[in-house]
Amino acid sequence: MKPIKVGLLGLGTVGTGVVRIVEGHQEDLQSQVGLPIVIEKVLVQNKTKSRSISIDPDKLTEDPWDIIRHPDIDVVVEVMGGIAGTKEYIIEALSRGKHVVTANKDLMALHGPEIVAKAKENGCDILYEASVAGGIPILRTLVDGFSSDRITKIMGIVNGTTNYILTKMSQEGASYSDVLKEAQELGYAEADPTSDVEGLDAARKMTILATLGFRTNVSLANVSAKGISQVSKEDILYAKRLGYELKLLGIAERQDDLVSISVQPTMVKQTHPIASVNGVFNAVYVYGDAVGETMFYGAGAGELPTATSIVADLVAVVKNLKLGVSGKQNGVADYKETKLKSDDQISSKYFLLLHVADRAGVLARITQVFAEFEVSLESVLQQPNPNNPDAEIIIITHDASKAAIQKVIDTFGSLDVVYKVKSVYRVEG
Amino acid sequence: MKPIKVGLLGLGTVGTGVVRIVEGHQEDLQSQVGLPIVIEKVLVQNKTKSRSISIDPDKLTEDPWDIIRHPDIDVVVEVMGGIAGTKEYIIEALSRGKHVVTANKDLMALHGPEIVAKAKENGCDILYEASVAGGIPILRTLVDGFSSDRITKIMGIVNGTTNYILTKMSQEGASYSDVLKEAQELGYAEADPTSDVEGLDAARKMTILATLGFRTNVSLANVSAKGISQVSKEDILYAKRLGYELKLLGIAERQDDLVSISVQPTMVKQTHPIASVNGVFNAVYVYGDAVGETMFYGAGAGELPTATSIVADLVAVVKNLKLGVSGKQNGVADYKETKLKSDDQISSKYFLLLHVADRAGVLARITQVFAEFEVSLESVLQQPNPNNPDAEIIIITHDASKAAIQKVIDTFGSLDVVYKVKSVYRVEG
């Protein structure tokens, strides 16, 4: 039987994992698809570099076009990352009738609809399970597993670096900067950690999750993102004392035709299943009208977990090829236009930590501001601040609109008894 | 466009949910499959009974053959339960070229391979996502999501009734019989709870999970099952004190070509993600060679969660029909024969609670028995028994074979210093 020939763009951590799995699980894979899957050509930056896997040097190339234009290659697997150049390769591969499997969240978050349309036009499959939450098969779960349901909320811990940092801060009472330094030394955080710690990586993944979960053409510009670089160990301490863990959550919500998607550090009730997802693990919590609450948990990154998703996509591509239905199941290009909620319509509980003057009547003045903007309060805790002559007030609100909370904060800015709005967090669970 | 016509066998809780979702989400469903899905005929026990949903009386029938032999029905959805009669209907429906979606774990655990073979023979789809863990799309995750990986272990909390009982016993220190009574009053446990509390329901679900996860023809007879009716509140108390929760776990393991599948109350380390799955919720923990640990969590039963899985299967059937690939993706019939591990080859940690004579040398005598059968110990705790003149010894072993532990227990039976082997549990995590 004619084998399926794969061209691999990139032989870094994940690319190496793909080779390992395709070779190590070859027998299992063949028993499922009925024919051999062969890595035919691999794009590398330097052919002579030594590697942790043995690979026929004739299969290596430093020229991507050797793969894109290769007449015998059926499927291109892209694990090189990057946006502009990579997009060109993928579009050209699709134009030549090659199916594409990619792990590239940046590319899919920015150019997903265009790439999917190109795939459709050419009768090709484009699959990208590995782009979100590494080894967790969450994209096919949203598309196939919940095809019958109306998903109304997706909450994700989809960035391992920030979850590692917040877990360490929570468990050891360490400061953000100390844990970041440690994470960089361990290779869990990059030298320039901006994309992870400022929530941009998570925002890209939430773009993809919301698109598939809500069957709506969400673009990255629709996602508001705030990272963890301003989180203090005091914030985490107060969270724990009130029964919460602080997590960087991507939250996508839908109500009728309106959606909102955001990434921000969020206080999550300790009893919520997502609160106990620790370290570099990822989890995606999905709430459906009919199914209620579900959660999917696993490794969010790493050579083999990510490669598992890529090779599962490869198996799907080969099955579709054999069944003659390639390119028939890419729905994204037809999805509805996104209508965003305004800040008046986005509702949640909030946590606020205020530094205030320590004198009579202050609490009354502050709670009056909340009342003025119709924000009702779930709990209020006032205590002396051990380090300062001022007092601390911790407030958790009932559900309130984002706009109302912003007005409350703005008003505090002009109130002489409020020295500082130290922290504001969304609250879930 | 010609609508897809569905015949529904059964209009109990889950059947009602199917009608609600197909009608309530019709627009969403049509946007995915491109044509209407219509419930054409519904089998009920009594046509005149009043119902919580409004349904055209002309669609109701008390004769299953009205549906099985109906010339226009494309898909039969079976939610009536039962084995012998139901099997006949499903086999006949498949013979007539109708696709089948079923939630019937008993039937699939007992006759899965035969039914799947019949579907294949007739070019029909047979899907049964709802048969295991209600709303959690775990079967398609095993088949598609992890197609590239080699799954080596599946642990499941797949019975909501027993998880509810154990959760209550753990959280409130209540006795088994009190909580069972309460669960029966709340409708979480049946009047005859045997199938749930003795682990038989879980065993059927583990048969299905192991079959799909290991791609091996597991039969129900391959699963050893023990239930929770002998669990005492003391057992749970001791478990918690040592940092464990007691859960009824289905455990399927694979090593090379050998498998073992069992259901038993198991001490799970509190830090393991499955330990905090409480109440009627289900969770399936999957360990793959490449992906590492993953877990899938959600409602295990209930009208709408279960119906979600059924209608997702229905969507898959319609997509396959439109793509012309019906019946091409049912792999089970070709799966490998099951080779079971012997008790010598099944290995885990164990917890033992012994009542022993409270005198010098007893602990030495007991630990000598473990040594004799080469079972090494992780921890030993001896304490006076507040209610009796004898002492209690709690032991957690290192990994030991099931056969060796049985020999240890047998030897204790003939030892005069051991009054009673009070409890023996497998330990995980």
Automatic annotation (TrEMBL), chains A, B:
MF terms (GO), sorted A to Z: homoserine dehydrogenase activity; metal ion binding; NADP binding
E.C. number: 1.1.1.3
Sequence ranges assigned to domain ACT in this UniProt record: 351-426
Keyword Metal-binding: yes
Enzyme type, top EC level: oxidoreductase
Protein residues bound to NADPH: 105
Pathway participation: Amino-acid biosynthesis; L-methionine biosynthesis via de novo pathway; L-homoserine from L-aspartate: step 3/3; Amino-acid biosynthesis; L-threonine biosynthesis; L-threonine from L-aspartate: step 3/5
Family matches, as InterPro entries: ACT-like_dom_sf, ACT_dom, Asp/hSer_DH_NAD-bd, HDH, HDH_cat, HDH_CS, NAD(P)-bd_dom_sf
Catalytic residue positions: 205
Keywords of the record: Amino-acid biosynthesis, Metal-binding, Methionine biosynthesis, NAD, NADP, Oxidoreductase, Sodium, Threonine biosynthesis
Chain positions recorded as L-homoserine binding sites: 190
Cofactor dependency: a metal cation
A GO BP annotation: threonine biosynthetic process
Keyword DNA-binding: no
Residues bound to NADP(+): 9-16
Catalytic reaction annotation: L-homoserine + NADP(+) = L-aspartate 4-semialdehyde + NADPH + H(+)
PROSITE patterns from the UniProt entry: ACT, HOMOSER_DHGENASE
Family: Belongs to the homoserine dehydrogenase family.
Protein name according to UniProt: Homoserine dehydrogenase
Organism whose genome encodes this protein: Paenibacillus agaridevorans
